[in-house]
Design goal:
Blueprint (H helix, E strand, L loop, with lengths): L1 E7 L9 E2 L2 E5 L7 E3 L9 H9 L3 E9 L4 E5 L5 E5 L10 E4 L13 H5 L1 H7 L6 E5 L10 H17 L3 E4 L10 H6 L5 E2 L3 E2 L9 E16 L7 H4 L6 H10 L6 E5 L3 H12 L10 E5 L2 H10 L4 E5 L1 H9 L2 H10 L1 H4 L9 E2 L5 E13 L4 H15 L2 H6 L10 H7 L2 E3 L2 H8 L2 H17 L3 H12 L5
Parallel strand pairs: 9-10, 9-11, 14-15, 14-16
Antiparallel strand pairs: 1-3, 1-5, 2-6, 3-4, 6-7, 7-8, 12-18, 13-16, 13-17, 13-18, 13-19
Length: about 475
């Protein structure tokens, strides 16, 4: 397989995306030969390409990327370079950035340029006592012992190693909520968020993500024994999410309430439902978004289980179920004046047959400040290295046996992850991915797993020099 390594150093067009000429080489052949486009019959040396870079005629990509037949290399009016659909790059939801254009920096009279272009790096290196990376981890995916947690800790270690930082520390659990996550990031209160960030429409104006999957549905938790509202609306997959929510409230008394955590996908879907159905009065009165944690939401639900319903992200649902009875009762006792109940009611809640589709798929990934391209590149590099690390693969494989890999944990949290191959292409670690396949093939042969070894050989052939 040929990989794109360089592109033409040309000025962007002011009002349109343009296809950019590029240079390629074979996977695993870092020293060349190189080719103009994919014209492999005319090879050029590494020295020739280096000379064009030195002359300012070519720019090198940060990592080599594959370019499928149905895609092209595009430059935007801002000078950003994307791999996107050859037919409709702007409308391609699968497009991804491979090189950002010139940094758009606004300077004051006494502001050094590098201080504005690398705010996260500067914050880490100039912390009060010593350089330190601060991260947030609310354990939305799988808990503290999950394979996903092993992967994110590897990413943090890679970030520290790249920055030359010896220390990292975790924000106190609960200190950062979905409501203040982006604000605290932009204020440099923390540097890296381990939890998946759901890039909804309103959020996309303030932050960006390094995407690794999609969210396509939310969870609904109800007491199946309740007769205070109609369950058939909540369970009807032929209705839209908005119709299921609004019809349930329309056909029940005002004492029936829906709770959700603010600034989550579920809260956005519920809010959109009442607006589209012209039931604005439900917002704030019957759909409550004041909750900030899974424990707070679970406590509210347990107090009046027959008349309360929860709509939440799948990862919040899983957090609610991981709360122990002792932890729940302790919370209820501490908030007994407010909740009017000292203990849980032992109600039988269920989320089965109540999954609700999002109006449109929502991108999911690791959050970063959109103007800090330096930090985006650091996270991308750290993520890619952890993803194809042979060491991490043993403990936290992205793909593997069902229920024994990171992807299974993400699916359990309601996230549809990219395949390992797709993600390796997006992160520019295809060559590391191929080396990982070779290692897995050797292990399969040692274990006499011939069928597995043959499948891996076929996959490796796709990237071999032909």
């Amino acid at each position: 397989m040929l990989l794109v390594t360089h592109y033409s150093s040309q000025p962007p067009e002011k009002d349109r995306w343009v296809v950019v000429p590029f240079i390629s080489r074979y996977a695993g052949k870092a020293d060349g030969p190189f080719f103009y486009g994919f014209e492999s019959s005319r090879p050029y040396s590494r020295e020739h390409i280096a000379g064009l870079v030195a002359a300012g005629k070519l720019k090198e990509l940060p990592r080599p990327f594959p370019l499928p037949d149905e895609q092209d290399l595009w430059m935007t009016p801002d000078g950003d370079v994307y791999i996107a659909s050859a037919k409709d790059p702007i409308g391609d939801s699968q497009r991804f950035l491979v090189q950002d254009g010139p940094k758009r920096i606004y300077e004051g009279p006494e502001t050094k340029r590098h201080e504005l272009s690398m705010p996260v790096r500067r914050a880490i290196l100039e912390r009060d006592t010593q350089p330190e990376l601060i991260y947030s981890d609310e354990e939305y995916v799988g808990g503290s012992e999950s394979r996903y947690s092993i992967l994110t800790q590897s990413i943090i270690a890679n970030l520290c190693r790249s920055l030359g930082v010896a220390e990292s520390s975790r924000e106190a659990k609960g200190a950062i909520t979905p409501e203040n996550l982006s604000t605290y990031l932009l204020e440099n209160s923390y540097d890296f968020c381990c939890d998946p960030y759901f890039k909804t429409g309103p959020r996309s104006r303030h932050v960006d993500i390094i995407q690794f999957g999609w969210v396509k549905s939310i969870a609904c938790i109800a007491n199946s024994a309740s007769k205070a509202y109609r369950h058939d609306f909540l369970k009807n997959p032929n209705l839209t999410t908005g119709e299921r929510i609004v019809n349930t409230l329309d056909t029940s008394g005002e004492e029936i309430l829906i709770g959700t955590i603010g600034e989550t996908v579920a809260a956005l879907e519920a809010h959109r439902a009442v607006l589209q159905a012209k039931r604005r009065s439900y917002g704030g009165k019957r759909i409550l978004t004041r909750f900030k944690s899974a424990l707070e939401l679970r406590g509210w639900l347990e107090v009046d289980p027959l008349r309360r319903i929860v709509i939440c992200d799948h990862c919040v649902k899983n957090q609610m179920w991981r709360i122990s009875k002792d932890e729940l009762n302790d919370y209820l006792k501490r908030h007994s004046d407010e909740l009017k109940s000292p203990t849980a009611k032992d109600a039988q809640f269920t989320s089965e047959d109540r999954e609700m589709k999002c109006e449109a798929p929502i991108p999911v990934g690791f959050i970063y400040p959109p103007e800090d391209k330096d930090w985006q590149a650091e996270i991308t590099k750290a993520f890619g290295s952890a993803l194809v690390s042979k060491t991490e693969w043993k403990d936290a494989p992205w793909e593997g046996k069902p229920d024994e890999d990171v992807s299974s944990e993400l699916r359990d949290a309601g996230i549809e992850p990219f395949s390992l191959e797709n993600l390796a292409q997006r992160l520019g670690v295809v060559e590391g991915y191929v080396e990982l396949l070779k290692s897995q093939c050797q292990e399969a042969m040692r274990n006499d797993a011939d069928a597995v070894a043959n499948q891996l050989r076929e996959k490796i052939k796709q990237y071999s020099v032909t």
